Amino acid sequence: MIGSQPVKVGDWHVAACESFYSLTSDTVSGKACQGLACFVGRRLNPGNWERACSQPGKLYCLGKCYAGPATDTTTLRPIIGVHARQPVVLERVVTGGARTLQAFLDRDGYRALDKVRRAAPEETIRAVEASNLRGRGGAGFPTGRKWRAVFQQSATPKYVVANADEGDPGAYIDRFLMEDDPHRLIEALAIAGHAVGATKGFIYLRKEYLQAQLALSQALSEARAAGFIDGNTGFDLEITMGHGSYVCGEETALLNSIEGRRAEVRQRPPYPTEQGLYGRPTLVNNVETLVCVPWIIEHGADEYRALGFSKSQGTKVVSLNSLFKRPGLYEVEFGVTIRHIVEELGGGLKNGKLKGLIIGGPLAGMVPPALLDTPFGFEELRAIGAMVGHGGIIAFDEHTSIRELIEHVAEFAAFESCGKCTPCRRGGQRLVELAAAGEIGTAEWREIDAALLATSLCGLGTGLAEFTTSALRHYPEELAPCFA
Predict the structure, then answer these.
(1) I need a surface site. Which of 253, 386, 390, 434 has the fewest CB within 10 A?
(2) CA–CA separation, 368 vs 161, rounded Å?
(3) Contact (CB, 8 A) for 391 and 419
(4) What is the secondary structure of 82-114 as a DSSP string?
(5) Which strand (E) or helix (H) includes residue 347?
(6) pTM of the full predicted structure?
(7) Pairing of the two strands 236-241 and 159-164
């Protein structure tokens, strides 16, 4: 790297990068999804599932989990509802969206950005800190702390990045935020850029979201023409398309991908807030996290903090898969019980008996029916071995065995591993072999789980171990024959 730009490399480097991705030279056209949400719903449309399994290559999520098993031609929209005292995230989406600049301006769009640009950056940082907003993409890290860490760096240039690589099977929240309310993300990134001192921003968008790309591209053109970004603002944005890699949802792998390098997870420290994109201070937040910020600026940190409960403030959008009677997107306040989400919002299952839930992505702990009264919150879910994660909620019933579930998730993790760390690269594949042989929970299995938890570089390896560990804990009777 020279200065703030990458050094051009030879053809061998390009080939090595392209070989990493599953969609470099392929498209989603004509594809069917074989992600976890579609897997547990495969009996709802056996033809689509057979198509997914027989097609060349793997495609693990199309963002249509509410209609799974889905294909690229599935056009059905999910139910969208707000069940909070105030809508924060789905404010415009729930009423049909604001896809054009004029529609956005008619709904008070860019008012928060104007307010921020007339104030000192420190004021915005303090507002985000005071709101107690936490990351909506995984671990729930305090957003204000991350913003301040970039703000305090003296090195320039600085960057802000929207992680729009919504790859968790079962999650389709960011997809509809970008398709139906694209200017909100642009406004949020411009606010973040002003606050931390960044002059350039990137939206890293997964290739599977072609409609989101069209919506965002049009919105960027409108925002530039109207002078909200670029021009005299000192801040501009561009879209970078992914090429099919789940691990790019991890922020350091994502940054490598933007730089044109192999999308492997980086060792930390240093953290992206110090040395991120092109070695410069970089703020990375996921889409839902960012779009909360304009609301906080407009309504105040106190009003935002009044929503939710305990250490989980504000609202969270959850996405329910196709096994529910009412699959869709629901904005809820933290503190409602999981049972309320499943039975009152989702209406329970279409048919069959609920066997369990996977919340926050496939690489997380399972929630059996006995724990449905757990409040939906960061610490509360962690206490039962689960996580909020991205907010996808996948229900599965008696038509899916725990052994099948484990084998599917292990195959997913092994396929998507970047290969950077040995436990994930070799351990994931070995778990696939053991699962196929019916040897789940053996001494070797538990040793691999322990190694994944202790030494994996990112959440892919640790999440796989947490998933299998929770399966052994909550469904021991069903898995008992495998122990032998």
Answers:
(1) 434
(2) 36
(3) no
(4) EESSS-SSSTTGGGT---SHHHHHHTTTTHHHH
(5) none
(6) 0.94
(7) unpaired
Give the pLDDT band (50/70/90) at residue 238.
very high
* Spatial CA neighbour of 409 closest among 432, 439, 442: 432
- Nearest-CA neighbor of 478 among 402, 367, 396? 402
Rounded to 5°, the CA angle 186-361-459 comes to 90
Q: Is 226 exposed, middle or buried (0-12, 13-18, 19+ CB in 10 A)?
A: middle
Cα 130 from Cα 123, distance rounded (Å): 10
Average pLDDT over residues 423-438: 91
Question: Residue 453 corresponds to which amino acid?
Answer: L
Chain mean position to CA 74: 21
Q: Which domains are delineated in the chain?
A: 31-75 (no CATH), 87-305 (3.40.50.11540), 313-397 (3.10.20.600), 402-483 (1.20.1440.230)
Q: Is 365 exposed, middle or buried (0-12, 13-18, 19+ CB in 10 A)?
A: buried
Question: In sequence order, what are the residues at sequence separation of 6 or more whose Cβ sits closer than 8 angstroms to the Cβ of residue 120?
Answer: none
The answer, yes or no, to whether the previous bond of 270 is cis (omega within 30 of 0) is: yes
- How many helices, marked H, and strands, marked E, lie in the chain? 20, 12
CB distance 24 to 243 below 8 Å: yes
- The whole-angstrom distance between residue 64's C-alpha and the CA centroid of its chain comes to 14
Contacts with 269 (C-beta within 8 Å, 6 or more apart), sequence order: none
Confidence of residue 9 (pLDDT cuts 50, 70, 90): very low
DSSP per position, 413-427: HHHH--S-SHHHHHH
Residue 341 carries which DSSP code? I
Within 8 A by CB and 6+ apart from 128, the residues are 143, 144, 147, 195, 293, 296, 301
